[in-house]
Amino acid sequence: VYGGFLYLISAGAPVKMIAAKDQITGGILGLVILLSSYLILTTINPQLAIFGIDIPKIEACDCEKPPEELSDYCKKVCMPIKELEPGIPVYFQIPTGIIIENAVLNEEAQEKLDFAYQVAKTAAESAEELYELSEEIHSLVMSTDCGLSYPCTALQCSAIGCKFGRDNQSQIKATIEETASVIEDLETKTSEISIAKILLINDFSQIEAAGFLMSLEYEEVFTYNDLLSIKHYYEEVKQEVKIDSFPEWENIDLEDRWSDN
Question: S-S: 186 plus which of 47, 126, 141, 153, CB 3.0-4.6 Å?
């Protein structure tokens, strides 16, 4: 059809006329191939040339009948629609004040912080003492003239050993023993620091979690008083409302806090 239309309007345009002839020729060849294919199929097996599709009839259902008289199809069609129950509004609360109070302000939190501070302070003092003792040992060893500790020169050595510095050995030994005691004490302080860290890490992880949730984007953010007003509104219209929180967080009892104020 397109080739014939193009041939009719191509008068005086040889290029368009050639294109129209090619289009018509291609269409005729396509019809010949289609007809040949149909003849071949009917010759081999007439069933191969059947392209009809039987569309099943849609069953008419009478939903007034009892369910046992209905077909499986009609049972699905006539299935009663459940009435939708109104959803319960859910609000998620972040008890920031309680989290900060439990982590920093109350007596138990203060004891944890003070314990961590004292342990860190004494550990730093022990580390400084250990450094000073190691410097002292190094100084004593380098200053001794005893051949047992440092090579003597020919002028300093005698038949009985070095002439000077033998008394440093007792001082070096005492300093080494003191250093070992400080190292042992520092190891104890390291264990106490680990304990203090464990005591604090849970509280501060709660603060970190609250900070992360507060940094997210929400459709609406309510203050404590707003949430209290919302709760009172739903109580007036006699609709249930749920105020949820993380299991580890203390749930704010709005009514108790309101009555306390």
Answer: 126
C-alpha–C-alpha distance, residues 34 and 30, integer Å: 6
Beta strands in 13-167 (DSSP E): 90-92, 157-158, 161-162
CA distance 24 to 5: 10
Q: How far apart are CA 77 and CA 200, in angstroms?
A: 62
Q: What is the dihedral sign for C-alpha 136, 138, 141, 143?
A: negative
pLDDT category of residue 156 using cuts at 50, 70 and 90: low
Separation of alpha carbons 187 and 6, rounded Å: 98
Nearest to 166 by CA among 150, 184, 185: 150
Domain ranges (residues) in the chain: 2-49, 90-260
The pLDDT value recorded for residue 6 is: 63
Which tokens belong to 6? 């193009």
Q: Which two tokens stand for residue 171?
A: 């001082």
241 vs 90: CA distance, rounded Å: 6
3-class state of residue 58 by DSSP: coil
Q: Are strands 157-158 and 242-244 parallel, antiparallel or unpaired?
A: unpaired
| Rounded-to-integer distance, Cα 26 and Cα 17, Å | 14
